[in-house]
Amino acid sequence: MANSKATATNTLLSRFEYVKDFERSDYLLPNTWVVVRIDGKGFTKLCARYGFEKPNDRRALDLMNAAAKAVMTDLPDITIGYGVSDEYSFIFHKTCTLYDRRESKLVSTVVSTFSAYYVHLWSTYFPDMPLAPPLPSFDGRAVCYPSVQNLRDYMSWRQVDCHINNLYNTTFWTLIQQGGMGATEAEEFLKVRDVASPSNVKLLTDYPQGTLSKDKNEILYSKFHMNYNNEPEINKKGSVVFRDYELVEPGSDKVAETIDDLAEPVTQSKTQAENDKKRRAKARIVVEHLDVIKDDFWDRRPWLLSNKPGKIPKLT
Amino acid sequence: MANSKATATNTLLSRFEYVKDFERSDYLLPNTWVVVRIDGKGFTKLCARYGFEKPNDRRALDLMNAAAKAVMTDLPDITIGYGVSDEYSFIFHKTCTLYDRRESKLVSTVVSTFSAYYVHLWSTYFPDMPLAPPLPSFDGRAVCYPSVQNLRDYMSWRQVDCHINNLYNTTFWTLIQQGGMGATEAEEFLKVRDVASPSNVKLLTDYPQGTLSKDKNEILYSKFHMNYNNEPEINKKGSVVFRDYELVEPGSDKVAETIDDLAEPVTQSKTQAENDKKRRAKARIVVEHLDVIKDDFWDRRPWLLSNKPGKIPKLT
Amino acid sequence: MANSKATATNTLLSRFEYVKDFERSDYLLPNTWVVVRIDGKGFTKLCARYGFEKPNDRRALDLMNAAAKAVMTDLPDITIGYGVSDEYSFIFHKTCTLYDRRESKLVSTVVSTFSAYYVHLWSTYFPDMPLAPPLPSFDGRAVCYPSVQNLRDYMSWRQVDCHINNLYNTTFWTLIQQGGMGATEAEEFLKVRDVASPSNVKLLTDYPQGTLSKDKNEILYSKFHMNYNNEPEINKKGSVVFRDYELVEPGSDKVAETIDDLAEPVTQSKTQAENDKKRRAKARIVVEHLDVIKDDFWDRRPWLLSNKPGKIPKLT
Amino acid sequence: MANSKATATNTLLSRFEYVKDFERSDYLLPNTWVVVRIDGKGFTKLCARYGFEKPNDRRALDLMNAAAKAVMTDLPDITIGYGVSDEYSFIFHKTCTLYDRRESKLVSTVVSTFSAYYVHLWSTYFPDMPLAPPLPSFDGRAVCYPSVQNLRDYMSWRQVDCHINNLYNTTFWTLIQQGGMGATEAEEFLKVRDVASPSNVKLLTDYPQGTLSKDKNEILYSKFHMNYNNEPEINKKGSVVFRDYELVEPGSDKVAETIDDLAEPVTQSKTQAENDKKRRAKARIVVEHLDVIKDDFWDRRPWLLSNKPGKIPKLT
Question: Out of D8, D11, D211, whose CB is closest to C12?
């Protein structure tokens, strides 16, 4: 029961202790952003069993977000989270030294905390459906990203993936639920028309890259009588979780450009570290459904990349 | 919600997908025993908060064991578990190919499943103490052991450690609870007398190695009026969890000696694999408090090392 | 010039020393056999440049073997080597603790030593062809094998590979050199007839597995007027390098069966270790062309698996 | 002899091929600078054996530099090298994809090539001292650095280390060679006076950080009658090896600041890549003894960080 551990040696103990030498060290490369991504295990079965609505069950998404918020409260070293469907990514700042950056510790702690809250909060979101074994569980892994650009590209990757999958699934389930098609029929319909298949879909928002158009939306509208733009933001964009400070005027801060210059863990004064900790604890953790691909999101929230807490916004 | 994932490419997606190349492969060495050990995080605080009894809280131990049983039910690839205090070790057979032996997958799945059940079953064991944030959580890591001897030495190491810590803690808390000492006083008392300090304690059972004696027990008895031998087995030996088949006469089976010769994953016929799976599913998973250091435990349960299910015992 | 290194700290030095934290530890799993295999880099070009004879250049093979012997002399921790063509495998015993089993150290030392001797001894084997840049070089990697069976299977794999490639190449070059075919023609000839293509060739020796026949040899003989059996052993079997002690009567020693039981580095007395070292230094390192697939090779040379030096054979 | 390898399967071969699954993947993290540092093995003995001059043997340093130049000629992916005493660091650009960034391949190839040239060129620098076994050899390891600042700090670390060791060794050997002291006496003398011990020595050049002074130099001059400033640059600064292009006016290029923004391997047109390759091959590789700690070195040679070849300087 978490009693004090013996550190000293004992004749018999010392005969077996050599087995400790088989443990491998797994420190993640310093000065890199650590992404821990967790994924629901066997959620297809789980969805069926508890009757999750298709293509998106709002209660299930809210439960994921509630668990993510709790993880970020318990682990203040996480600066931002991004969730979609049954997966969630948590980002540790590149200067983070939690558990000496040991991979197993970081991954297992995030996964364990998330799983605990998911089960604990289940009844809040599914009051009429008590959990029974096998319980929902998650696996996880860590990936290191050396630069801010890599990290942002990772976030963009997940959000583009969210969009593509959601557009496809929305169309697919509309065909079934409103069009009366069967699953195979709907799949075939989409394949033949090559309309909303994940492979050729374009993002609906305007990107300077010019690769994105609004055409598909019109096609979807005319063919399937649905306006994808009116779909809930949580489905189209996924969920971003972060500590809320006062927004900053874009352009007034150059965090994204300078943060890569940071070469090693900042040595803060103890007072400064304490202050930062307090402000972080005070900050509200919010769940929003914003575009994380464009610069604007990052420019207005410099604390996400700098890891320096901003101003606590006044309540209005 | 576990909808079908897009596998195809998209212009924008492909711009970001390079971030997948930053993932590292983490396959564990084939033909080695994989031990996943999990540990409670910050359980000292947890013990205090929920008033766990000292030095051992039976409800808390039973909850750990219940969670471990559930883990082994959900993950039939685990052949044996060993738990003490707030830690649990789970062993995957050296031929196991679950998740292609990917370390992150194995560790995170075990940790997640355990955490989920720990929280889910909490109210069964602590009906009057509802859980509140921060919830209990666990970290975990994997270690590979090449030979049966290494694996058994690992198990012995944990059990000797259990014994040493329990003997010390039992004495320590007796001094406090029955002797009216304070924590510092008790610690000092034990240090000065050098009696039951973890460093010089000997195991109380008879080992052929001759390094173990019953003397300490008598000292403990005369000084502190407690007979360590009468302490519950669960405290002295920890808990072993495994599938229960008919015991085998020692000497009739040479598993421990021959299992190291197994060089690669056995290629079973499909029927055989199905049969094994069914028998495994049918077997009762039991929690016992046995000596896992001596040969007897392993000799009588050859299925633990061979991974071939034994005979289902008849109910009496 | 290998002067004493400063270990103390300096103001400026300490500003930069954090970069040492980026080094990863790379200890290889204890109690496993370590195979370091090296491969010639760009040897196709090298062969052409220095006019190596096809399919086997005896001088080049002898040079490889001479370099391998020198490596084993300089690194007594290597118990056995196996070479074919421009590759060589060196085996460190599973109890080996050289360089604390650090992978980079082991691999780079073997590769460096081999390369140094290859260049140094070049003129002995190719007296008329002075080396010029770019010099021959080798890459290398380490692989761990948990059991004797794994290790022997590794050795068998390399020797079967040697056989298959040599049989194919011998036929291929006979068609060109004696049959007057061009390279493409010879390749096509072999593909159509499906005769000696690496995919369907059978080993020529008798194996209990029954998968091997002498038929192919006859086909080769009648079609291409060559008797593969008369080819030099070095080409057919590759080269095994090891320390030479008195052979042991097969069956009198059970090394292969018991060596897996060894769970941890043996703690020898200092005198014993010194004695072993001396005997090892005294032993002649020999290059032979033997079958390493069958048990006989290992049974008669128990020191290869036990790592205990045998008796130095008397000179006759 | 680098004949074509069989890729197809064979009954016996396939029985053993499972051993390939024991190979671990070792791709280094993308978008990081890869430093491969090699170190002479047992060079203390080597120095004694071949009578290297103390504290610095010019022939030995020239041989190291000649081998390093050859390595960089054979491996154009290396952008810069830095050598001191019997160690050499080679830097691969963060966008480098040689051997898919496999650690073993990179380390072993550098070590092998260096060793081959060291032995091959030995007689040029030590014409009167033929090499004999055991031959000189080197070990090596790879370290990844995520940012330009990390990389420059690594280079600075090695150069400060060079300075500190050289100042100490120069003083130490002056005491012996000119002062007639014994080794122990000299060591004691330096320890007592705390004068030139590596721990408190300051760099002799002017650094904006203000931590460096010229005082020590004067102390050294008055006490030991030697002017450290007059020592050869190669001893004081070590050797930098790089491709020589036209120097750039400092400030006209912002490579160091922008190179961190590069997030992934640049996709060049084939023509561009070919052009770069040709220019690189045309560039002279030079060995210089410059200060690599200050910005000036890097600002004037933007190609070192950008990996884009500069202008070939006109011969005058």
Answer: D211
Does pLDDT of B4 surpass 90?
no
Inter-chain contacts counted by CB atoms under 8 A, chains B and C = 53
Q: Is D107 on the interface with C (CB under 8 A)?
A: yes
Beta-bridge mates of residue B36: B90, B142
For residues D30-60, b (16+ Cβ closer than 10 Å) or e, as one string? bbbbbbbbbbbbebeebbeebebebbbbebb
Our CA angle for B204, B34, B107, nearest 5°, is 105
Q: Is the Cα dihedral A117, A120, A124, A128 positive or negative?
A: positive
Q: Is D224 exposed, middle or buried (0-12, 13-18, 19+ CB in 10 A)?
A: middle
Please indicate whether residue A198 or residue A296 has the higher confidence score (pLDDT).
A296
Task: Return the residue of D nearest to A260 by Cα.
Answer: D260
Average pLDDT on A254-273 reads: 70
Name the pLDDT band for C179 (thresholds 50, 70, 90).
confident
pLDDT given at position A294? 95
* Chain A contact for C129 (CB, 8 A cutoff): no
Closest Cα in chain B to D264? B18
Q: Of A104, A1, A133, nearest to B69 (Cα)?
A: A133
Phi, psi of D300 (to 5 degrees): -80, -10
**Nearest Cβ partner of D143 from C23, C40, C73?**
C23
CA distances from D153 to C12, D149, D246 (A): 11, 6, 25
DSSP, collapsed to helix, strand or coil, labels residue D106 as helix
Is the Cβ–Cβ distance between A240 and A81 less than 8 Å?
yes
Instruction: Residue D56: name the closest of D187, D166, D202 by CA.
Output: D166
- Count of all residues that appear for chain A in the document: 316
> For chain A, what is the largest distance between any 2 Cα atoms, rounded to a whole number of angstroms?
80
Residue B171 scores a pLDDT above 70: yes
Q: Worst-scoring range by mean pLDDT, B123-132, C269-278, D104-113, D145-154?
A: C269-278
| Chain centroid offset of residue A216 CA | 27
- In tens, the pLDDT along A43-53 reads 999 999 999 99
A295, two tokens: 């610069």
What is the distance between the alpha carbons of residues B73 and B71, in angstroms, rounded to a whole number? 5
**Global pTM exceeds 0.95:** no
- Best CA proximity match to A298, nearest among A200, A99, A135, A159: A159
pLDDT of A197 above 70: no
Q: What is the DSSP letter of A231?
A: S
A266 lies within 8 A of chain C by CB: no
Distance of alpha carbon C146 from alpha carbon B48, whole angstroms: 45
Measuring CA to CA, which residue among C52, C70, C184 is closest to residue C121?
Answer: C70
pLDDT of residue B249: 85
Under the banding of pLDDT at 50, 70 and 90, the label for residue A250 is confident
Query: Are residues D156 and C16 in contact, defined by beta-carbon separation less than 8 angstroms?
Result: yes
User: With contact defined as beta carbons under 8 Å apart, do C176 and C183 qualify?
Assistant: yes
Alpha-carbon distances of B1 from A154, A169, A184, rounded to whole Å = 21, 10, 19
pLDDT in tens, B198-227: 444 444 333 433 333 344 465 567 666 678
| Residue B40 is labelled as binding a ligand | yes
Q: How confident is the model at residue B234 (pLDDT cuts 50, 70, 90)?
A: very high
pLDDT, position A124: 98
> Which pLDDT does position A8 carry in this prediction?
42
Chain C interface includes D164 (CB < 8 A):
yes
Residue A244, helix vs strand vs coil: strand
Looking at residue C151, what DSSP letter applies? H
User: What's the confidence (pLDDT) of residue B200?
Assistant: 40
Does residue D40 have a known ligand-binding role? yes
Cα dihedral sign, D194-D197-D200-D204? positive
